[in-house]
Amino acid sequence: MKKAQEEMRGKGGLCPSGGRILTSKVYTYIVCILVMLSLAACGTAGSPLGEDSTRLLRPVRSVGEVLGEEVAGQATAAAPTIPATSSIGPEIPAPEDGDWTDPPTEEERSPEMLPSPGQIIGGNVNNRRIDPSRPMLALTFDDGPSAHTSKILDLLDTYGGKATFFVIASRVERNASTIRRMADEGHEVLGHTVSHRSLTSSSLSERDIRREILEAHGAIEAIIGTPIAPMFRPPYGNVNQRLRDVSRDLGFAIVNWDIDTQDWRSRNAEAIHGVVEKNVRNRSIILAHDIHAPTAESMETVIPMLVEMGYQLVTLSELMHFSNKELTAGNLYTHGR
């Protein structure tokens, strides 16, 4: 037996203790595994990256992702309160297909406290020498332009007055020359929706409301080539909480009136004159419609009467500026007092 064991030991079969033999190949394989495990452990512990070596597996962020975080940080910052002298509304380009399927992003929204009218009207304020100590009011005309608008513009030019025209977007393109004349002569042009549908109607979705406001705003800016004030007038003056909320989200103030000439009802120049004469007050906003011939006719006596009474005929932005009004998105304004 001893002789047999010696023979086997000489062949590398059994270990001295008499256990199962390990062949040279198996022994080599085990040694290699142990070496590899040892090196792996040392590599992790001794790596210059330490435990954070796994960052090498993280994807590199694009420039867009980095800028996206910065923009998001800016969007959540508190919006400053801006004094009552204004700038522009949100510049939200219409999609090529004309379909407003998504609400505006944070980057597209204006802060709740709107810029004031002063920057838009700055040149006019200095050139027109408006005296804030004297009475003033804003003549406003809805639903145009029309064939009667030019007559009103001629009268305003004769008496040195300015007005604000709330135009319907569907009329804008075919009356582009009139729109440009309004702007060139120092009048204010603002939106009165695209279709003149009531924005408080339950048949309109919030997307429909946004589209009515934004497309009218954009159509005007496209023609006159400069930004306009972030204000609009809803058809029929109809306002509810949903419209206020949408307007606030879009960054627009809502403007109605405190004197309705009732020209849409009477269609009579003398009646229109009588309503204005009886109800006019300092810093009023007067509603009329330049789509009616009697309205244009009435301005032949209304405009000179107001001038003789000492009123300065100013635009809405001018009225708000000199009334120290802070325009807040979603709020409704009916006068400058």
What keywords describe this structure?
single chain; 337 residues; alpha/beta; TIM Barrel; 2 domains; six-stranded parallel sheet; three-stranded parallel sheet; 13 helices; 9 strands; elongated
Describe the model.
- With 337 residues, the protein is an alpha/beta fold.
- It has two domains: 42 residues; 250 residues, TIM Barrel (Alpha-Beta Barrel), CATH 3.20.20.370.
- It is 44% helix and 9% strand.
- It is built from 13 helices and nine strands.
- The strands form two sheets. Strands 1, 2, 3, 6, 7 and 8 form a six-stranded parallel sheet that branches.
- Helix 5 links the parallel strand 1 and strand 2.
- The N and C termini lie far apart (123 Å).
Structural class: alpha/beta
**What is the terminal-to-terminal distance?**
123 Å
Low-pLDDT sequence parts: 1-23, 41-113, 115-126
User: What number is the mean pLDDT?
Assistant: 76
Q: Give the number of DSSP strands.
A: 9
**From the 3D coordinates, which CATH architecture of the largest domain would you assign?**
Alpha-Beta Barrel
State the domain count.
2
